[in-house]
Design brief:
Shape of chain A: globular
Strand content of chain B: 5-15%
Distance between the termini of chain B: 20 Å
CATH topology of chain B: TIM Barrel
Distance between the termini of chain A: 50 Å
Strand content of chain A: 15-25%
Number of strands of chain B: 8
Strand order of the largest sheet of chain B: 4-3-2-1-8-7-6-5
Number of strands of chain A: 14
CATH topology of the largest domain in chain A: Rossmann fold
Oligomer: heterodimer
Largest sheet of chain B: 8 strands, parallel
Radius of gyration of chain A: 19 Å
CATH architecture of the largest domain in chain A: 3-Layer(aba) Sandwich
Order of helices and strands of chain A: EEHHEHEHEHEHHEHEHEHEHEEHEHHEH
Number of domains of chain A: 2
Helix content of chain B: 40-55%
Mean pLDDT of chain A: 96
CATH superfamily of chain B: Aldolase class I
Low-confidence stretches of chain B: 262-279
Strand order of the largest sheet of chain A: 3-4-14-9-10-13
CATH class of chain B: Alpha Beta
Number of helices of chain A: 15
Low-confidence stretches of chain A: none
Order of helices and strands of chain B: EHEHHEHHEHEHEHEHEHHH
Chain lengths: ~400, ~280
């Protein structure tokens, strides 16, 4: 399981490279350079140096004592990716890809963003490494996330509002790819999740594995054993793959949590594995939310980071073989979990991460006290305060 | 140059008018038609064709209906080869075999899938052989050492992407295009046509001695967009079709001049394409 993808970029039947011919050569270049870089100990050393010295790794493992007592079941631990520089796990990948871009002699970065977290991470590393950065963002998200737009501008990036389609993450990604097709000779496309054509799903996983690797050591130190259950939220799925991957060959239960929005029985959700079918999106064969004619449909979630109609092909594979279980959590459940985590542990998680927390809170009381549950707290909730306020006030009315 | 290959989107501005437009294109001198199937996420297309796809999708166009539309065109007497231009996902949902069966039943002459590169297309090429529907391959300016591999499997014609980027109207074509075309021609056993960005008679004129055909998409689709209201209204439709034809004829004026001397070759190549023979 740990050796995938194969040389064609496939995780079982999933993955691959479904892109215009123009991009085949640039993708092969990235793949070759990535393999060289990953085999080069100085590249790894430089990556680790920036993670530690710039992003503040290793991130803490926090024992959620109050929640554990309140729920009365398994012991709950949080892997604190919210403590990273820029406030989420996204920076791990951005640093890795920026170093690869530098190695390839490319000084112009393209990125797509939904809520703005990956956009901010890309803008941040571009500033740090002296690169130009263009961030494609749906016009709708530009309006909803004006604070993050301003953050990116402060960091010196150019934010390009996308007006095609529904003007959200899917369309921003389309536009970033189109721009890349035109400028692939001197631009590096920094994808923010484990999606896209090969080698992106593998590359982003390699740059996010640090989450699970650290957590594994930390759990062994704290408990003297591996966790029984690991839970992470899944949009594209980069924090989840980063967390799960180092545990896939162990006897550890892994649960990915998708966004059920207003419920998986409505049309307003982003539960791609739960409700989607096999299809191609953004260069990869995976599960996709689509109609019977193969047109991609619009997802919905209160969480912009999970509001995506595809999912990383490795998740599709892990679901298909039954190694990881994928469940879903509604907006309402996620917001309640966010409030409970804030009130009980003094941590305001991102709404994305609150989906994983909600599932953990459902499961913990059902498990014996000697078991442990490890939750990937992928990001902090500062960016979501306005959204949560609107939701709760709307609810009260 | 032998081939003028216009591209239009099925169902833009509506199904009925698409048939009229194809008849007009054939009369104006099209030797092959590329019929675009609208898709929600057309990665290889610029804004003009994206908008056309949105209009067609709003009209309820699907891959199946687009294939059936070809059948209707055949009933109305359209003779030129019709290549189905579709993204891969609709084909995957319809089912690859079912796609080819429907394409064959309805008189399609080939299929081109812009997001299915050589390495991922083997199964489609094999099915295409079984059903007698050639799978059209593309080469791009970044293909370099891939050209020989792609050209070796090319069927009907080889489609050269003129420049980096998506479909659209470009003021100028890259200087390296002629060199690129020479290189592709040296590997290709089938006619070499150029597309992406070609939008003026002037560009057509400059390309006519260096390739076997041109694909013109966005410029024609933009014309349809400009005329959409007249085309949709039965009272103004015939005048709009005349205006459309005049525009198309003006685009390919340079070909007509040369065409008189090259009519012999034109017939031969068209025959190869329409019967789907590769060798």
């Amino acid at each position: 399981m740990l050796t995938l993808p194969n040389e064609r970029g496939r995780f079982g039947m999933f993955g691959g490279k479904f892109v215009p011919e123009t991009l085949m050569r640039p993708l092969a270049d990235i793949e070759n350079q990535l393999h060289e870089a990953l085999a080069d100990s100085s590249f790894h050393a430089e990556y680790m140096h920036h993670l530690y010295e710039y992003s503040g790794r290793p991130t803490a493992l926090t024992f959620a004592k109050n929640l554990t007592e309140r729920l009365g079941g398994a012991k709950m631990y949080f892997k604190r990716e919210d403590l990273n520089h820029t406030g989420a796990h996204k920076i791990n990948n951005a640093i890795g890809q920026a170093l690869l871009a530098k190695r390839m002699g490319k000084r112009k970065i393209i990125a797509e963003t939904g809520a703005g977290q990956h956009g901010v991470a890309a803008a941040t590393v571009a500033a740090r490494f002296g690169m130009e950065c263009k961030v494609f963002m749906g016009e709708e998200d530009v309006k909803r996330q004006s604070l993050n737009v301003f953050r990116m501008k402060l960091l010196g990036a150019q934010v390009i509002p996308v007006t095609s389609g529904n003007r959200t993450l899917k369309d921003a990604t389309n536009e970033a790819i189109r721009y890349w097709v035109e400028h692939c000779d001197d631009h590096f496309y920094m994808i923010g999740s484990v999606v896209g054509p090969h080698p992106y799903p593998m590359m982003v996983r390699e740059f996010q594995r640090i989450i699970g690797e650290e957590a594994r050591e930390q759990m062994l130190k704290a408990e003297g054993k591996l966790p029984d259950t690991i839970i992470a939220c899944v949009g594209g799925g980069s924090n989840a793959i980063g967390m799960f991957h180092p545990f896939l060959d162990d006897d550890v239960e892994c649960i990915g949590v998708e966004a059920a929005g207003k419920g998986v029985h409505t049309t307003e959700h982003a539960a791609t594995i739960t409700k989607g079918t096999k299809g191609v999106i953004h260069g990869s064969l995976t599960y996709v939310l689509q109609d019977e004619h193969g047109q991609i449909t619009e997802p919905y979630s209160i969480s912009a980071g999970l509001d995506y109609p595809g999912v990383g092909p490795e998740h599709a594979y892990l679901a298909h073989i039954g190694r990881v279980r994928y469940e879903s959590v509604t907006d309402e459940e996620a917001i309640a979990a966010l409030q409970m985590t804030a009130e009980t542990e003094g941590i305001i998680p991102a709404i994305e991460s609150a989906h994983a927390l909600a599932k953990a809170f459902q499961i913990a009381p059902l498990r014996p006290k000697h078991e442990t549950i490890l939750v990937c707290l992928s990001g902090r909730g500062d960016k979501d305060v306005q959204t949560v306020m609107n939701y709760l006030e709307g609810d009260e009315r | 140059m032998k081939h003028f290959i216009p591209f239009i989107v099925a169902g833009d501005p509506c199904e009925e008018v698409t048939i009229d437009l194809v008849i007009a294109l054939e009369q104006a001198g099209a030797t092959i038609l590329e019929l675009g199937v609208p898709y929600s996420d057309p990665l290889a297309d610029g804004p003009i064709i994206q908008r056309a796809a949105s209009r067609a999708l709003k009209n309820g166009m699907t891959l199946t209906r687009a294939l059936e539309l070809i059948g209707q065109m055949r009933k109305k007497g359209v003779k030129i080869p019709i290549i189905v231009f579709t993204y891969y996902n609709p084909v995957l949902q319809l089912g690859e075999e079912r796609f080819f069966a429907l394409a064959q039943q309805n008189g399609a002459s080939g299929v081109l899938i812009p997001d299915l590169p050589f390495e991922e297309s083997e199964h489609m090429r094999i099915l295409g052989d079984t059903y007698g529907i050639p799978y059209i391959s593309l080469v791009a300016p970044t293909s370099h050492e891939r050209i020989a591999m792609i050209a070796s499997q090319a069927q009907s014609f080889l489609y050269c992407v003129s420049s980096l980027g998506v479909t659209g109207i470009r003021d100028s074509l890259p200087k390296q295009l002629y060199e690129f075309l020479q290189q592709v021609k040296s590997y290709s056993r089938v006619p070499v046509v150029v597309g992406f960005g070609i939008s003026t008679a002037d560009q057509v004129e400059r390309l006519q001695h260096v390739c076997d055909g041109v694909v013109i998409g966005s410029a024609i689709v933009q014309k349809i967009e400009q005329l959409q209201h007249q085309l949709n209204d039965v009272h103004t439709r015939s005048n709009a079709l005349i205006a459309f034809s005049q525009y198309v004829v003006s685009l390919i004026e340079p070909l007509k001049r040369v065409g008189k001397n090259e009519s012999q070759t034109t017939t031969e190549t068209t025959k190869t394409v329409s019967t789907g023979q590769t060798d």
